[in-house]
Design a protein that fits this description.
Layout lengths: L1 H4 L34 H36 L3 E7 L2 E6 L9 H17 L5 E5 L2 E7 L7 H14 L1
Antiparallel strand pairs: 1-2, 2-4, 3-4
Helix pairs in contact: 2-4
Length: about 160
C-alpha cells in the first residue's frame, strides 16, 4: 500500500526505523485521501489570531534567525555554508583536516546529524546540496530564539 499511495518525496521519505533518525512511515502513505487536506485553515487561523502585522512580524523573526545562523556558519572556520534562502540554511561541518570533497566529510556530517537529532537539544534534517551531504535547518517556529540558533552552532561543532 505504501508504494501505491505514497506521495512523499524522497527527501522526506522515512526508513521505517523506530530508533535512529529515519522514523516510521507517515500514516498518510497508506491511503488515497491525501488531496483533500484543509491546509488553508492553519493560515486562516494564524492570520485571525495574530493579524496581518503580527503574522508579518513572525515571518520576519524567523528570517532574521536564519540570517543569524548563516552568518555564524560563515564566520566559523570549521563550518561551510552550502545554501540559504528564506528561513532554510544548509551547511556542513568541514574541518580543515578532511578534504572537502571526500566521502569522509559526508559520513562525518551524517554522524553529526544523527547525534544532533538523537540528543534532543535541536533538530535538523539531512539533504544533499550540489552533491554534498548537508545539515538542513529550517526555522519556522516563532518560539525559536537567538539562543536556540547559537546552541545549534555550538552543538554541531562540539559533536563534530
Amino acid at each position: 500500500m505504501r508504494d501505491t499511495f505514497s506521495l512523499v518525496p524522497p527527501y522526506l521519505r522515512t526508513d521505517n526505523s523506530l530508533e535512529g533518525v529515519g522514523g516510521p512511515p507517515w500514516f498518510s502513505e497508506f491511503g488515497f485521501q491525501q488531496t483533500r487536506g484543509f491546509r488553508a485553515l492553519k493560515v486562516w487561523m494564524a492570520l485571525r489570531h495574530h493579524g496581518l502585522d503580527g503574522y508579518r512580524a513572525l515571518l520576519e523573526h524567523d528570517l532574521a534567525l536564519a540570517d543569524r545562523l548563516a552568518a555564524q556558519i560563515e564566520a566559523a572556520p570549521d563550518l561551510e555554508l552550502l545554501a540559504c534562502g528564506l528561513s532554510v540554511v544548509c551547511f556542513r561541518v568541514a574541518p580543515v583536516a578532511i578534504s572537502r570533497g571526500a566521502d569522509q566529510l559526508d559520513e562525518l556530517n551524517r554522524r553529526v546529524l544523527a547525534d544532533v537529532q538523537l540528543g534532543g537539544q535541536a533538530f535538523v534534517t539531512g539533504t544533499t546540496v550540489r552533491g554534498k551531504f548537508a545539515l538542513r535547518a529550517c526555522i519556522v517556529n516563532p518560539r525559536t530564539t537567538a539562543e536556540d540558533v547559537d546552541l545549534l552552532v555550538r552543538l554541531v561543532r562540539q559533536l563534530a
